[in-house]
Amino acid sequence: MAVPPTYADLGKSARDIFTKGYGFGLIKLDLKTKSENGLEFTSSGSANTETSKVTGSLETKYRWTEYGLTFIEKWNTDNTLGTEITLEDQLARGLKLTFDSSFSPNTGNDGTEFGGSIYQKVNDKLETAVNLAWTAGNSNTRFGIAAKYQIDSDASFSAKVNNSSLIGLGYTQTLKPGIKLTLSALLDGKNVNAGGHKLGLGLEFEA
């Protein structure tokens, strides 16, 4: 008997379906650690195989479990600062509300981006998501659909497509506890035979 589809976490869960398991044109390295007081640290580094640009980021996360709160602070080498506050299972069971903001002090860019997403866990193996985004002062709307299939306990396959006909494919394999390998590809659906597609390789360590 099929598990009834459930809707949850209209922010992070949907975002994960679109972003995790992909790394087009990049070589990535991620490291996650957790302190005794529950503070989590994630540091990431990536090298662009086309431009040779190297970027890095640092994220700290603290969970205030008794109040259902999670605080996340982010910084990257492009000097973008981000804050995310999540409230879970407080107003209603299964409901998660997320507020996030980002600030780039060096750009002077005041364009505000808006977005929304829907996440559905179809069953224990299949997750799907739809997202929509637009920028203030710009009539261009962007949208996409994505899915993730859990092949077994150690491997998963992801796929996504957006309104520009860009197709993303990703495969993630757990090599051993705490170590994951990700292979990904980005294809231009409008020019499949033209070449110029991107490949990605990622390695994630969790201590």
Shape: globular
DSSP helix fraction: under 10%
Number of helices: 1
Mind summarizing the main beta sheet? 14 strands, mixed
Strand element count: 14
Q: What percentage of amino acids are in beta strands?
A: over 45%
Provide the spatial order of strands within the biggest beta sheet: 1-8-9-10-11-12-13-14-2-3-4-5-6-7
Task: State Rg.
Answer: 18 Å
Q: What are the segments in which pLDDT stays under 50 over at least 5 consecutive residues?
A: 1-10
Give the class from helix and strand content and strand pairing. Answer: mainly beta
Quaternary form: single chain
Termini gap? 38 Å
Q: What order do the SSEs take from the amino end to the carboxyl end, as H and E? A: EHEEEEEEEEEEEEE
What is the average per-residue confidence, as pLDDT, rounded to a whole number? 80
Characterization of this structure:
- This protein has 207 residues and is mainly beta.
- 4% of the residues lie in helices and 60% in strands.
- Residues 1-10 have low confidence and may be disordered.
Summarize the structure.
Helices cover 4% and strands 60% of the residues.
